[in-house]
Specification:
The protein is α/β, with parallel strands linked by helices and 334 residues long. The protein is built from 10 helices and 14 strands. The strands form 3 sheets. An 8-stranded parallel beta sheet has the order 13-12-11-10-9-8-7-14. A 4-stranded antiparallel beta sheet has the order 2-3-1-4, with helices on one face. Helix 3 (136-149) links the parallel strand 8 and strand 9. Helix 2 (99-112) runs parallel beside helix 10 (308-326), helix 5 (183-190) crosses helix 6 and helix 9 (272-282) packs parallel to helix 10. The N and C termini lie far apart (55 Å). The chain binds phosphoenolpyruvate and manganese (II) ion. The site of manganese (II) ion (MN) has 5 residues, from loops.
Length: 334
């Protein structure tokens, strides 16, 4: 059972409700500001008339805030950008490597038509011997590159302890594939006052993805952008398998905008443009793509990085494809 509190409930109402719920035989558990979970076999009739109660309802297990429910598609402001309006391109290096390089790349992706700058400062790496990012210094370089170009920036946060630091430097927090189910991190990130870019876990179902988004929304996050970045399948030819069919499927299930990441989906710059075009053709509202001016020397994910010149041509194509896909059908000829 879920008890929905009124918007105008006072802290005293809330404390009294928790006490009354225990006395009525429940194990109450606050969920965000306005919901109290009622667990166990208690007596609902003792609670329904109390101050601060809006309603009490059985939960059917579906996310309440992330699902469509007649909601218009959400537009998420990220700095000066608006994700969900037009075609969004988030581009930049896998990792922030040094001040000058990320600054140059920021200018080049902006010239190519990107609208948001990406770059990892805290890098989740499979091997602890790989480059793990510059940490705080990387955040400072990324922020400086964003400020110099006017591009909002997104970067990953891996640890609850780093949420305030990353939120101070970034316009949007990224929760990576490996952490989509790190529920403590979702709660902290949801409270940080920044929109969150939530990547689908590499073995996560859509239901699990939407429930992860629900954790953020329950904490009052100012916006959630979902990202399909490829999933683990039996196919080992590519780094992952791009699950492009989720683009139309998620549109039916959630109001949250969905971005596709063809870089981590394929692991190879040869296939990134084709998969980006497939995403746009399926109706994605944007892509996240890794870019490097010299992929051969990149400190992480060089093989999947596009050159900025390739990005320019690709963005032009994607905007054309997206315009065709989103064109309202012409009225029938009379
Ligand atoms: C990334 O975007 O930098 C990243 C690590 O991606 P993922 O979490 O999808 O592997
Ligand atoms: Mn990467």
């Amino acid at each position: 059972m879920l008890l929905f509190c009124r918007r105008d409930q006072t802290p005293a109402d809330r404390d009294a409700l928790l006490t009354a719920a225990r006395a009525a035989g429940f194990h109450p558990q606050p969920m965000g500001d306005r919901i109290i979970g009622l667990f166990g076999a208690g007596r609902v009739d003792e609670l329904s008339g109390l101050a601060g109660v809006e309603r009490i309802a059985e939960s059917d297990g579906t996310p309440l805030l992330a699902t469509l429910n007649g909601h218009e598609p959400t537009i998420v402001p990220v700095g000066a950008a608006r994700v969900g309006e037009g075609f969004t391109v988030i581009a930049g290096p896998c990792a922030v490597e040094d001040r000058q390089r990320v600054l140059d790349l920021a200018h080049r992706v902006k010239d190519a038509g990107a609208t948001i700058l990406r770059g990892g400062a805290f890098k989740p790496r499979t091997s602890p011997y790989s480059f793990r990012g510059l940490g705080r210094t990387g955040l400072e370089y990324l922020r400086a590159a964003g400020d110099a170009t006017g591009l909002p920036v997104v970067t990953e946060v891996m640890d609850t302890r780093d949420v305030p630091l990353v939120a101070e430097h970034a316009d949007m927090l990224q929760i990576g594939s490996r952490n989509m189910m790190n529920y403590s991190l979702l709660v902290e990130a949801g409270r940080a006052g920044r929109p969150v870019f939530l990547k689908r876990g590499m073995s996560a179902t859509l239901d699990e993805l939407l429930h992860a988004a629900e954790y953020l929304l329950l904490e009052g996050v100012p916006g959630v952008v979902l990202c399909e970045r490829g999933i683990r399948t039996f196919s080992t030819e590519m780094r992952n398998t791009l699950d492009v069919s989720v683009v139309p499927l998620l549109r039916e299930r959630t109001h949250l905008p969905l971005i596709v990441d063809p870089s981590h989906a394929t692991g190879s710059s040869r296939f990134v443009p084709a998969m980006a075009r497939a995403a746009a053709a399926a109706g994605a509202i944007g892509i996240m793509v890794e870019v490097h001016d010299d992929p051969g020397v990149a400190l992480s994910d060089g093989p999947q990085a596009l050159h900025p010149d390739t990005l320019r041509d690709l963005i032009r194509q994607l905007r054309e494809i997206s315009a065709i896909v989103n064109r309202t059908p012409a009225p029938p000829a009379t």
